[in-house]
Amino acid sequence: MQNNEHDQIQVEVSAGRALVWDLEDLKTLRTKHRIIGAMVGSLEAQPLQNIFYGMPLALLPEEVSLLQKQGLIYITNTGDGAGWNYPQNAKERDRCTVFEYLWTKGYYVTCGTKFGGDFLVYPGDPARYHSHYVVTVVQESDTFDPRSLVATGRLGSNVKKTQVKACVSNGSVQLWSVQWAAI
C-alpha cells in the first residue's frame, strides 16, 4: 500500500468525474492494477471526430473507490466544489463490492452499459480479449419476472456473453448466470 502523494497516482475530480491526466499514470493503472477507465478527450490532430478519444482517462466510480481503498491514488479537486463522495447508498456500495470481488479474482472490469449491464468482465486486457460476462448488480430484495430473465438470456446469447446477476448478501458476493438455451 502506498502511503504518500509522491508514490500515488493523482486523480482529479471535475464536475463529479474522476480524471487521470498523466500518461505514465494511465499505463501504470492498466498494466499494474488492471484498471481500464475510458478515454474521454478529443484528439489534437482530429478534434471534430468522435470515434477515437484521447486523454484524460475517466475512471468508473467503482475504480476510484477500489484505488482509494488500496491506497494507490490521491484525489484533487478542480475547485468547482464537487468532492468525491462515492458510494453514498446501498446500491452504490454493492456495486463497489461486486467490482472489487471481480477485480480480486484477476479479471479486468469495465463499464457494461453498452450491453445492458453494470460491468463487462474480461479474462485479460480488453485490448486483447473480448469480454465473457455482462454483470448486473441486483439487490437481495429484487424480484424478476420470467420475461425479463428470458430477455436477459437472449440478449447475452445474441452478443455471445454470459449474463451474470450479482448480489451482495451479508457482505458476501453471490453470482448466478443466465444463458439462453433453445428447446
TrEMBL record:
GO terms for cellular component: nucleus. It comes from the Eukaryota. Gene3D superfamilies: 3.40.1350.10. InterPro entries: tRNA_endonuc-like_dom_sf, tRNA_intron_Endo_cat-like_sf, tRNA_intron_Endonuc_cat-like, TSEN34_N. Residues 94-174 form the tRNA intron endonuclease catalytic domain. It holds the Pfam family TSEN34_N. Residues 9-76 form the TSEN34 N-terminal domain. Coiled coil: none annotated. GO terms for biological process: tRNA-type intron splice site recognition and cleavage. Keywords: Lyase, tRNA processing. CDD domains: tRNA-intron_lyase_C. GO terms for molecular function: nucleic acid binding; tRNA-intron lyase activity. Its EC number is 4.6.1.16. Transmembrane segments: none annotated. It catalyses: pretRNA = a 3'-half-tRNA molecule with a 5'-OH end + a 5'-half-tRNA molecule with a 2',3'-cyclic phosphate end + an intron with a 2',3'-cyclic phosphate and a 5'-hydroxyl terminus. Belongs to the tRNA-intron endonuclease family. This is tRNA-intron lyase.
